[in-house]
Amino acid sequence: MLNRRLLRIKAFKVLFSTWQDGPAALDTAEKELMRSCEKTLDLYYFLLNVCGPLKQVAFDKIEALRNKFHPTEEERNPNMKFVNNRFFKAVEDNAEFQKYCSRKGLVWGEYDIFIKKLFASITASDYYAEYMASKEDSFKADCQFARRIFEEEFEDNTSLDAILEDLSIYWTDDVNYVLNNIIYAIDSKIAGNPLILPDVFIKDEDRDFVLELLKVSLLHYDEYFKLVCDSLDNWDSDRLVSTDATLIVMGIAEAVAFPNIPAKVTINEYVEISKYYSTVNSRVFVNGLLDKIIQAKIASGEIVKTGRGLLDGGQRVSKEQ
User: Is the pTM above the cut of 0.85?
Assistant: First the structure.
């Protein structure tokens, strides 16, 4: 589930919080990193598991209107498209999915107020009105409607953010990434595939990658930090932004430890991360200093890049790197 960019970010966060403790912190740092990775998978299950509670709120409202003393014709014969949504049912009926949610406690039971507010927001939308009025009654239409819910209702939802922050310190920054994975899973269902139940890592080597990246970065932090300071031109090391320093240290560690990843890819990755986790000027600073250090190490033979396309910027490298 986790791509290399997100793995780098998670390793960066752990390294930033533990480097002061030096090599002695490695075991604790590795456990913290694995916990963070596993929590992203839990968020995927938790958000997707909202389908059942939403369906239940819709059903309860229909039943309440039916049981009025004098229900209208529409209330006696309600539109059941929402309640009968086939994608919701596919999620509810997937035994493996529900078993995981139950085992991890990824349920919405105590957040009924949020579910009701979410349902009210959905039913007030144009896409809901279009879906309920449409004569098309198909699995594809049901999936497309579910897709709109995750696209429209969850991003920048302050009520949801408060719940996620309360449940896990790891979830706040992962919401958009997880939502994209859920939308991909819905599109996959439209194409006729089983419900995607991802693993934490897309490939087994991704786990090895992020653990090795953290290990090399932590064990060599002091060495690489000194190299960063020594490489500064007309710049006081005391003015070095700590997040920038950590990103550059990680970039050096990655360049040294992974000969199959092009230097250009490594530099670009940490520049991109700096845009979100450092200052407005960090992009240029990280790019310039990391490139300078890596190129010097390549010239001295301390960094060796092997494989076709790795020595000239690696334009042909897979995006998964």
Answer: yes
Rg (alpha carbons) of the chain, rounded to whole number? 24
Contacts of 213 (CB under 8 A, 6+ apart): 7, 8, 11, 250, 253, 254, 257, 258
Choose among 4, 2, 3, 8: nearest CA to 270: 8
Integer Cα distance of 67 and 76 in angstroms: 9
Q: What does the block give as tokens for 230?
A: 């020594």
**Residue 313: per-residue pLDDT:** 44
* Position 315 pLDDT exceeds 80: no
Confidence band for 98, pLDDT divided at 50, 70 and 90:
very high
**Domain residue ranges in the chain:** 39-190
Would you say 51 and 92 are in contact if contact means Cβ atoms under 8 Å apart? Answer: yes
Judged by DSSP in three states, 2 sits in strand
Which amino acid, residue 149?
I
**Angle at CA 232, nearest 5°, toward 230 and 235?**
125
CA-CA-CA-CA torsion for 247, 249, 254, 259, nearest 10 degrees? 140
